[in-house]
């Protein structure tokens, strides 16, 4: 399988990429690691006019502690998070979530920004970022705006990123969580998570339980009101509308969410840093 | 007549160093890296198995790290150093991972072997070790062997790891 005919341009730097986005908008599809986009193009589930390859924007590959937040460049590849000392110190949940992504080959190519822009409702790293109350930086030639990662995706594959913008950075508030857990349940042979749960202090994020990754607000409220972890976990699927498809029934996903939230909350009782 | 101001082109020139030798080809922009390697450069060690980024038979080294060449455009690899199984041996002397695969009978039909060997090379390069069996199994998660010869493959990789620590 090969993608349909397409055009290709590699951006030399961020300034050029932003100028081209302003001039050509959605005619250009940003390409980061391509680990989700290329399979979609090969299967003809997606189509592009021109790929704007951001893969060489090394200026967007970094992890930096900046006082009140940990900044991660959008082109930072997953495997770099696994051994990054700042991630290990401030937000080890990101290393755990990154280790759950695909396999080593995918982690060598896939990027943090690509995962967010792809808006997959079952993606690992974005789930951890939602629990961390992280913020995405969307940049255009006019400047940058900040969007909570929890509000970035509006539907599978669709984000609030405008045609003239690029997702350039994600910011994790510091100090990082004192208690955290990441739990995922997937079919062993490289499947995406059926359901995944990230817990960071009192915040609980759910993947695979709706059209976008979301906070389990009913669980959070129960915890805040003093409910036990077990009691709070019973609310995991409250207000969720999980898919009912060939990979799993909606009922099974609901069951998984309650079990995984209970386990994740149990993990997160003790400080793990 | 309108002038097409779009950036980019439908054809790209890709310059890569493959197994230490510089190569330059002009290909359609949609060309996958695995097809550049197999069809343009006539190196057929990297095979197309699942063609969906699951099986790892197409694994090559991209700037020293394992990558699935069926899920990268040739254009993305422009300027990179690519390593394929053909470049591992030093003349008649097999690479230590190849030698261990031979020694431990870590291949049956051989279809997955080039990708499996390169995934192991990448794993060993990234992890100073000593590696546990669990770490080796996780490290080879992206490579499927449909002969199910995993036990011997893991033994072979563990043997290379043990040998390098024994000095």
From TrEMBL, chain A:
What Gene3D superfamilies would the database entry show?
3.30.465.10, CO dehydrogenase flavoprotein, C-terminal domain (3.30.390.50), Uridine Diphospho-n-acetylenolpyruvylglucosamine Reductase, domain 2 (3.30.43.10)
InterPro entries the UniProt entry points to: CO_DH_flav_C, CO_DH_flav_C_dom_sf, Diverse_Substr_Oxidored, FAD-bd_PCMH, FAD-bd_PCMH-like_sf, FAD-bd_PCMH_sub1, FAD-bd_PCMH_sub2, Mopterin_DH_FAD-bd
Protein's name in the database:
Carbon-monoxide dehydrogenase medium subunit
Q: Which residues form the FAD-binding PCMH-type domain?
A: 1-177
Q: Does the keyword Acyltransferase apply?
A: no
User: Residues of the signal sequence?
Assistant: none
PROSITE patterns noted in UniProt: FAD_PCMH
Which species does the entry assign this protein to? Micromonospora humi
A molecular function annotated in GO for this UniProt entry is: FAD binding
> What keywords sit in the KW lines?
FAD, Flavoprotein, Oxidoreductase
Instruction: Extract the PANTHER family matched here.
Output: XANTHINE DEHYDROGENASE SUBUNIT C-RELATED
UniProtKB/TrEMBL annotation, chain B:
Q: Where is the 2Fe-2S ferredoxin-type domain?
A: 12-88
Q: Which UniProt keywords apply?
A: 2Fe-2S, Iron, Iron-sulfur, Metal-binding, Oxidoreductase
**Pathway(s):** Alkaloid degradation; nicotine degradation
Q: Which InterPro entries match?
A: 2Fe-2S-bd, 2Fe-2S-bd_dom_sf, 2Fe-2S_ferredoxin-like_sf, 2Fe-2S_ferredoxin-type, Beta-grasp_dom_sf, Diverse_Oxidoreductases
Recorded GO MF terms: 2 iron, 2 sulfur cluster binding; metal ion binding; oxidoreductase activity
User: Cross-referenced Gene3D superfamilies, in alphabetical order?
Assistant: 3.10.20.30, [2Fe-2S]-binding domain
Q: What is this protein called?
A: Carbon-monoxide dehydrogenase small subunit
